[in-house]
Write a structure and sequence with these properties.
Elements (H helix, E strand, L loop, with lengths): L2 H32 L4 H5 L5 H18 L10 H11 L20 E3 L17 E3 L8 E3 L3 E3 L9 H14 L2 E3 L7 H4 L4 E6 L15 H7 L5 E5 L11 E2 L6 H7 L7 E2 L10 H15 L3 E6 L4 H13 L7 E5 L10 H6 L4 H14 L7 E5 L5 H10 L3 E4 L1 H7 L21 H4 L4 H25 L13 E6 L2 E4 H4 L12
Parallel strand pairs: 4-13, 5-6, 6-7, 7-10, 10-11, 11-12, 12-13
Antiparallel strand pairs: 1-14, 2-3, 8-9, 14-15
Helix pairs in contact: 4-14, 4-16, 5-16, 13-16, 14-16
């Protein structure tokens, strides 16, 4: 090809591109100067768009270039890196000292023993039975850390499959979330907790009411049921799955029309008070033979106190077999910022008070306690055990183990790691055969490190952790033992359980 022809093609192409660019600038200039919504664009057309670009991209630049390892929210780089290492089964040893600031109020300090437990005296963490003596098929739970509710639809099919297979390998349970029981939950044959949300997804009839027949059917595949009153991310508001995620398959699982926004009520229509809650618990337990628990965020002390009083009045057979206490720190579900920031007590305050109410009422041995709310590290899980929890649930910890990079796009269907999207091209990046091993590694390593902390405190296993084994920093140079900050209450009712 002659040089003159090549030059002509290059010149023509450059001219066309130039005209396109100039045309685009003219179009944006006219659009910006005539629109009425944005003052900056109206006064500074074209250039003003840079502000919105950098405002949108700023959190990504901060994440990688500007913030320190311990600075970022909701999870800092040090925490994410720790989870990634555990999920990949990499050595988590660090050198030259900790970057964890022990001067910050709220910092955790475990009370190490002068003479820690010898390896030959250490014991495996005991399993705990849920519902024993009160239902036909109690659930023996093995793992301290477990997978919190994430609905199929909110997260992708490959993500659910990897969680199911990983949970089976690690021996932890998997909550379905309020979106119902999907075939992918069953793929790994792990222990499953069926969550009953306010819309009764997956367990409803054609009118949207609770279906007893469906509950009996599901009971053959799950270990327990959990009535969800609220979650920490948005207490007082129902969930919403955008229409773009409601595929015919997801719609069939939930029992709703496809390609329409899936909006759940802000509370159960058939549960409007404590008495109705206890009636529903007893009904579902009798119907299915499985343990039945309750998940809720805590806003004050009236609910838990009234719950305990009602159980004492009616009898322990009406009690929930477990309580999942969700902190107001927000969770994997997207929510209005007014609620995700300001509604609900944080788990560090809610958990001890709930446990205290159970102790005071003499119900602590009857009801198992599950803690949730940014408890993604072994230290936070060990704190929860010290405060009185029996188990810990986490969603975002396991999302990180799947490869989540905290892109904050969970609700946009554009998750770059394929976890919270139904875009098949993005889902392709999540290889189940690889990721399920990381899910299992994360759970196994967290359980191991919780035990390691307990051994450092001079205990044989993690379930011996108590409030006296941890201190909370109040100010620089001063900490207080958790049993002094939250003293153990006395039992005010000796009624037998």
């Amino acid at each position: 090809m002659p040089d003159s022809l090549i030059n002509l093609i290059i010149f023509s192409t450059a001219t066309i591109l130039g005209l396109i660019i100039v045309g685009a600038i003219v179009i944006f200039f006219i659009r910006d100067t005539t629109q009425k919504k944005h003052t900056i664009l109206r006064n500074y057309p074209i250039i003003g768009r840079l502000r919105y670009f950098f405002e949108t991209q700023g959190k990504y630049f901060r994440q990688y270039f500007f913030t320190g390892d311990r600075d970022e929210m909701p999870f800092n780089r040090a925490t994410r890196s720790w989870i990634y290492k555990n999920a990949k089964n990499m050595e988590s040893t660090v050198g030259f000292g900790s970057t964890y600031d022990l001067r910050e109020p709220g910092a955790l300090i475990f009370v190490n023993a002068a003479f820690p437990i010898l390896e030959e005296d250490q014991l495996p963490t005991p399993s705990l039975s849920i519902g024993e003596g009160y239902c036909d098929q109690p659930f023996l739970a093995q793992s301290i850390i477990n997978i919190s509710g994430m609905s199929y639809g909110a997260i992708s099919a490959p993500a659910v499959r990897a969680l199911s297979l990983g949970a089976a390998k690690a021996g932890c349970w998997l909550s379905t979330g309020e979106g119902g029981l999907a075939p992918f939950h069953l793929e790994g044959e792990c222990d499953i907790i069926m969550q009953i949300g306010t819309a009764k997804y997956g367990i409803r009839d054609e009118r949207g009411k609770f279906s007893a027949a469906r509950a009996r059917e599901i009971a053959q595949s799950v270990k327990a049921f959990e009535i969800k009153l609220s979650q920490g991310a948005k207490p007082g508001k129902g969930g919403m799955l955008p229409a773009c995620k409601v595929s015919p398959e997801i719609a069939a699982i939930r029992g709703i029309p496809p390609w329409q926004d899936s909006i759940s009520p802000n509370r159960h229509h058939d549960i409007g008070n404590i008495e109705e809650l206890l009636d529903q618990i007893a009904f579902i337990r009798e119907l299915t033979g499985r343990p039945v628990g309750v998940k809720t965020a805590i806003g004050g002390w009236h609910f838990i106190n009234e719950l305990c009083d009602a159980i004492l009045r009616r009898g322990p057979e009406y009690a929930p077999d477990f309580l999942t206490i969700d902190g107001g720190e927000g969770g994997s579900g997207a929510a209005p910022q007014a609620l995700i920031d300001y509604a609900g007590l944080p788990i560090i305050e809610a958990l001890p008070r709930v446990v205290d109410a159970l102790i005071e009422s003499g119900l602590r041995q009857r009801i198992r306690v599950v803690a949730a709310g940014k408890l993604v590290t072994s230290a936070k899980c060990a704190w929860a055990l010290c405060a009185g929890a029996d188990f810990v649930n986490t969603a975002r910890g396991f999302m990180f183990s799947l490869g989540c990079i905290q892109a904050m796009r969970c609700h946009l269907n554009t998750c770059p790691t394929g976890i919270t999207t139904n875009n098949s091209r993005l889902q392709r990046g999540l290889v189940v055969e690889e990721k399920y091993l990381r899910v299992a590694n994360y759970a196994i390593n967290v359980n191991h490190e919780i035990g390691m902390i307990a051994h450092s405190c001079g205990l044989r296993h993690a379930r011996e952790l108590r409030r006296e084994h941890i201190r909370i920093v109040e100010t620089a140079g001063k900490s207080i033992a958790l049993n002094m900050l939250h003293p153990y209450p006395e039992i005010r009712n000796q009624r037998s359980n």
